[in-house]
Amino acid sequence: MNHTTRVLKSEWTKVRSVHSTVWTLATALIVSVGLGALICAVTASTFDDMSTGDRLTFDATYTSFAGMGLGQLAMIAFGVLIVSAEYSTGMIRNSLAAVPQRGTFLWCKVLIAGVLVLVVGMLTSFCAFFLGQALLGSHGVGIGDPGVLRAVVGGGLYMALIAMFAVGITFVLRSPLLAFAILMPFFFLISNILGNVEATKKVGQYLPDQAGTTVMAVVPETLDRPYGPWEGLLIMVAWTAAALVAGFIVLKKRDA
Amino acid sequence: MIELEDLTKRYGDKLAVDGLSFTVRPGTVTGFLGPNGAGKSTTMRMVLGLDAPTRGDVRIEGKHYGELREPLNSIGALLEAKGVHGGRRAYDHLLCLAQSNGIPERRVGEVLEMVGLQEVARKRPKGFSLGMGQRLGIAAALLGDPRILMFDEPVNGLDPEGIHWIRNLMQQLAREGRTVFVSSHLMSEMAQTAEHLVVIGQGKLLADTSMSQFIAENSRTHVRVRTPEPERMRDVLVEAGLRPVTGGDGALEVDGGEAPRIGELAAANGVVLHELSTQRASLEEAFMRLTAQSVEYHAYAPGADGTQLPQTPPGAAPPPGGAAPPPQPGQAPPAWGEDWKRGR
Ligand SMILES: Nc1ncnc2c1ncn2[C@@H]1O[C@H](COP(=O)(O)OP(=O)(O)O)[C@@H](O)[C@H]1O
Ligand SMILES: [Mg+2]
Fold it and tell me: Membrane spanning segments where (chain A) (predicted)?
């Protein structure tokens, strides 16, 4: 068996053999879908109270993704834990003694984690969409409507990317405490403020999550960004790639 | 074989390892001895390529660690920090390490049995005792059936049975012709396990010698003489060309003297003796003398003779009774344990 395949197998064993994998990913799915469903149900029952303008620009797809703002935090937790557990337990020394090719080690871990969060992300996105549309009833849209499939697939990609961004950052920070303390408030609060307040919006809208969410909107007015949905996602991809490369450089350079 | 050449590691201002050059050879247990903070763990991390040397080089069977594709098949290590995820079953912990090195899965069961952990294979190590954790770490080191084994303070905090088990294991591995490199901060521990000894202090090499030679060179023997007439006895000894010194309790200590001769001198001069005994300084003392200048943090306690000696480290429990005999054949008495206790 080839070296990379062996390391991939080993990383798969690692990720499937700890509880935190299941509970973080399950939380991401349940919170995103559940909260999205709740908001869709409330929206459906209050739809007639909305102003005409709001009704005209109503984005049924984006509304069904309303739970992802919270659900993404569990995705981030997964990304943080899969890396920081290596450091907090000292396992990293066993891991690197077994696989001294640090690049192989990191990219195999990234690939295994990436495939897993992509599957869970897609599942989350499609479930949130279909359940949300069912609850929206006559105000909902179909998967075949223009831009909708792109937004739903984009939602899955978004969830995967945010987790992988956390993976990269945690390879830089190493400590679970530090990674949580920085990433959680940032993506829950700070970037939303920076990306939406007039004073900081010009720069803030290029933050990874602010850019990435554009792919999930079908009605352009929902977010009002100077770039399109795919460009938005691409900005997020660039952030994620940068975080992973930074993590790789730190892993390569620093003592374990 | 592990070869170190001018191996050096600097952390900021701190020179943790300072130009170490020595070779660890197969077929014997090589003890790596030094007080806490001497640089043993740092050296071992550099052997595994975990910490990059500031200068110098270390090779495993002639290769750099990073050149090894399946390192676990060449060298197995138990590091100071156990490095086990408390939530990952023992079996899975070993499985993921085995898989990364192409080691067949059945080997996981084998090593678990070897270290006596087969019953808890499906348990998560967060509930393991210190000894069980140590055994799991050793199982990981044995996974690839490597020719080289490296253990960093393997008996720290273990109960006598655990210590005995690890000692026997290391000697057995060496008998099989493997290279066994084991660190400790306790001379008494090394004396019972190692045939070869590398001593470091503050990152520097202090000794690289066989255990028997270290003992011969470092265990000072002297004769203790207690008498109601110390002044007269002293004069008698000085006249006979010996150099007695007065010990802490008023007894005379004669370096290099022979008990029979001193007894005869006393008899010839009519001096009453209350005690006449040969004393061997303990290896622990020899080790402390060797490293005295290089101990990082001295914890001084007045010695029995009024001189200042660094205190025995807190973990220095006396070796258990019925311990394994010293490795050198034909060099049985005096028992190291006894010798060591007398030195306290
Ligand atoms: N990662 C590190 N950063 C800074 N200093 C370190 C690091 N690791 C070890 N040291 C220092 O290097 C010295 C040697 O430590 P160590 O190798 O752990 O000694 P030993 O294992 O012999 O007790 C100590 O003074 C320790 O404080
Ligand atoms: Mg140490």
Answer: 21-44, 64-85, 106-131, 151-172, 177-195, 233-251
Average pLDDT value for chain A:
96
Q: Which residues contact B200 (CB under 8 A, 6 or more apart)?
A: B20, B32, B33, B34, B38, B39, B40, B43, B206
Q: What burial letters (b/e) apply to B18-43, b meaning 16+ CB within 10 Å? A: bebebebebebbbbbbbbebbbbbbb
Strand partners, B8: B55
Atom of ligand 1 nearest to the CA of B42: 17
User: What region, left, alpha or beta, does residue A198 occupy, with left being phi > 0 and alpha being psi -120 to 50 degrees?
Assistant: alpha
Ligand nearest to C-alpha B51 = 1
Alpha carbon distance B196, B214 (integer Å): 9
**A135, A195, B43, B277 from B258: Cα distances, Å:** 101, 90, 43, 9
Q: Which ligand ends up closest to the CA of B43?
A: 1
Ligand 1 proximal residues by C-beta, below 6 Å: B 11, 14, 16, 34, 36-42
State which of B198, B216, B234 marks the end of a domain.
B216
Pairing of strands B196-201, B14-24: unpaired
Asked if residue B168 and residue B269 are part of one domain, the reply reads no
Range 66-95 of A in CB contact (< 8 A) with B: 85, 89-95
Say if the Cβ atoms of B85 and A6 lie within 8 Å.
no
What's the total number of domains in chain B?
Answer: 2
Instruction: Flag if B84 and A96 touch (Cβ within 8 Å).
Output: no
Q: What is the pTM of this model?
A: 0.84
Count of domains forming chain A? 1
pLDDT tens-place string over residues A142-163: 999 999 999 999 999 999 999 9
Domain that holds residue B260: 222-279
Quote the tokens at residue A106: 């990191």
Tens of pLDDT along A202-239?
999 999 999 999 999 999 888 888 999 999 999 999 99
Search chain A and give the residue with CA nearest B86.
Answer: A89
Smallest CA separation from ligand 1 atom 25, residue: B37
**For B70, which residue in chain A has the nearest alpha carbon?**
A98
CA of B154 to the centre of ligand 2 (A): 10
